[in-house]
Amino acid sequence: MESGNANHEVETTSGITIKGILSLLMENIDADSGKRVVSLGMGDPSASTCFRTTRVAEDAVVDALQSQKFNGYSPTVGLPQTRRAIAEYLSRDLPYKLSSDDVFVTSGCTQAIDVALAMLARPGANILLPRPGFPIYELSAAFRYIEVRHYDLLPNKGWEVDLDAVQALADHNTVAMVIINPGNPCGNVYTDQHLKEIAETAEKLNVLVIADEVYGHLAFGDTPFVPMGRYGTIVPVLTLGSLSKRWIVPGWRLGWFVTSDPCGMFRNPKVVERIKKYFDLLGGPSTFIQAAVPQIIERTDEAFLEKNNDTLRQTADICCGRIGEIPCLACSDEPKGSMAMMVKLNLSLLKDISDDNDFCFKLAKEESVIILPGLALGLKDWVRITFAADPSSLEEGLGRTKSFCRRYAKQV
Ligand SMILES: *Cc1c(COP(=O)(O)O)cnc(C)c1O
């Protein structure tokens, strides 16, 4: 099958990273307006006072550092105790046990993404990515010369994967499909049943599943988080994750690339050798951060994790409530997880706003409020709002967005 028009139309977004577009928006802010900048654009929860990591994690790093045992290089695939702790952590939610050998320690989930794509790249290969999605995948695919084909997430079905589209897009050169669950940018949490259908579809197409679970367990709605690895018996799964979001330490750069593959497809010595060699090239995260991981995972209070989910539920509610008061904005679905949601722009209610980009740039200039244009994620005339922010910032930012929209409202 040809790549189709769908591919070409997203070319407009290629090369744009979230960080890139956010810095353009920041440049557009009017510094003389006297308005405090409210950023609901970037998914770094540590910027908000209501999201703080736990003392347990800080102490674990201090202990590891002061022990003076972790000033040297670690094995490039990660410290053995770190790999073991991550294997045990992820196995808690699986019907089988992962071994330390399944776990490779990376510099955040970002590097795990790049490792996955580097391992799968070969001439002619293509990969199926969600739209809207997370642009790091497109960026990594571009560097690896992997052709990108987008399948849609369905806004009216809780942003589920359009499995018919997946079947239509895949061919014998398709190496993998990517899912992000809980989802950024949509705030979706997939049901167990949907994950099983994804696994069955991927198995039928003979492609593996890359499961980005960087928001694993950050599910605060009525759908519990289920790891894709649960269906590793149906299809090989590469599970990607990190401490960044659940422990609110994105700057610690501690992530993982995990083969959730009880049938052992990845245990082919040649494949393992190739992965190991690639890690020799990477260097991995700081040894003392790695050394802190067993303590962080074992000693973190359930109460800390629950409180974060309670806070996210509360800030997501504030977000939906305020958006509900703005006629030209609509959230198709209450977010159930992660830290972001997609909001639809009804441009027919606005004058002098041409599209989502125009909306976001004018909002930045006139109100000092930063939100991300959907086009950066492949979805025109939507915007992404990050609700991992202090309630007061959300109220302030969305309050200003409301006055902005009122100012641009078409007179009827
Ligand atoms: C934040 C994020 C990442 C990157 O995680 P790091 O651990 O900070 O590198 C990867 N995927 C998604 C969907 C994310 O939102």
Structure in words:
The protein is an alpha/beta fold and 412 residues long. It has 2 domains: 3-52 and 303-407, Aspartate Aminotransferase, domain 1, CATH 3.90.1150.10; 55-299, Type I PLP-dependent aspartate aminotransferase-like (Major domain) (Aspartate Aminotransferase, domain 2), CATH 3.40.640.10. It is built from 13 helices and 14 strands. β4 (147-154) and β5 (160-161) form a beta hairpin. It starts with a helix and ends in a 5-residue tail after the last helix. Pyridoxal-5'-phosphate (PLP) is lined by residues 43, 108-110, 134, 180, 184, 212, 214, 242, 244, 250, 255.
Biggest sheet record:
8 strands, mixed
Please, what is the CATH homologous superfamily of the largest domain?
Answer: Type I PLP-dependent aspartate aminotransferase-like (Major domain)
Provide the list of bound ligands, each named once.
pyridoxal-5'-phosphate
**What is the C-alpha radius of gyration, as a whole number of Å?**
21 Å
* CATH classification, class level of the largest domain: Alpha Beta
How many beta-strand runs? 14
Q: What is the chain-wise order of helices and strands? A: HHEHHEHEHEEHEHEEEHHHEEHEEEH
- Termini gap: 48 Å
Helix segment tally: 13
